[in-house]
């Protein structure tokens, strides 16, 4: 039983939805695989957070939003400006649910944790190649790390984040092919090096391409302070429009809205037209209306 097969079923196992021979096979593998046990612990924490925080919006509001938005989005095609302001603006007067909107945000943000996208991803040119594989990372003292490498025999490196060998190990760890827990810890450590160009490129890559939602989420959080930089904004726009996880799409949209820049209106219009998640459509609609009001007030 390999780690990839097990990790594709860990979320179901954590939620108690895996039964029979598959559940027994996962349990057997977990007894001997520390990496998959760490991955299970991460999934269990995310599941607990979803259950604790995700609100249940009133059924009446969901039905009203659904019918109202479907009606607006299925009107005859017009220019983006007229579609948004002519068809949607009159309905905004009815949308005064600030507190419930916050609940929508939390719901959309957190429910996306449960999605999995195991499709293959391209490897960037910056991938560190070599015979060794990073299998574990741990802090051993303030400012010092231990990187555990798997070769024909184990080799251990120790040093600070300024040590080139440790940095190289982090770059390798961020692409560990089977252990999302190692990738997540590597991303958290690379966030402390975000001013270092290779680390920044790794975070951009992880946000776009890592197959695990939790790792992409951590990379997005690490990039948030750099949201004013063009490559980061491009990545945020891509996440808003293409990430399979609605929680990540919602988070990326919120980061973009806090750092308005060129092209934001176009992104909002596209999100409004193609987005399937109701909260994200509503948030794009609200942001477009706010920008229009600002333009008219000048």
Question: Mind explaining what this structure looks like?
Answer:
- With 298 residues, the protein is mostly helical.
- The protein has 3 domains: 3-53, no CATH class; 54-115 and 245-298, no CATH class; 120-218, no CATH class.
- 62% of the residues lie in helices and 7% in strands.
- It contains 15 helices and 3 strands.
- It has helices at residues 3-7, 10-14, 20-30, 34-53, 59-73, 80-92, 98-111, 164-173, 180-191, 197-209, 213-223, 230-242, 246-258, 264-274, 278-297; strands at residues 133-141, 144-150, 154-159.
- A 3-stranded antiparallel beta sheet has the order 1-2-3.
- Helix 6 (80-92) crosses helix 15 (278-297), helix 9 runs parallel beside helix 11 (213-223) and helix 10 packs across helix 11.
- The radius of gyration is 22 Å and the shape is flat.
- The N and C termini lie far apart (64 Å).
Features:
about 300 residues; mainly alpha; 3 domains; 3-stranded antiparallel β-sheet; 15 helices; about 60% helix; flat
Task: List segments where confidence is low: pLDDT < 50 over at least 5 consecutive residues.
Answer: 77-107, 109-130
Helix content: 55-70%
Q: Globular, elongated, flat, extended or rod-shaped: what is the shape?
A: flat
Q: Strand sequence of the main sheet, in spatial order?
A: 1-2-3
Beta fraction of the residues? 5-15%
What's the average pLDDT?
A: 76
- Measured between the Cα atoms of the first and last residue, the distance is 64 Å
Please compute the radius of gyration using only Cα atoms: 22 Å
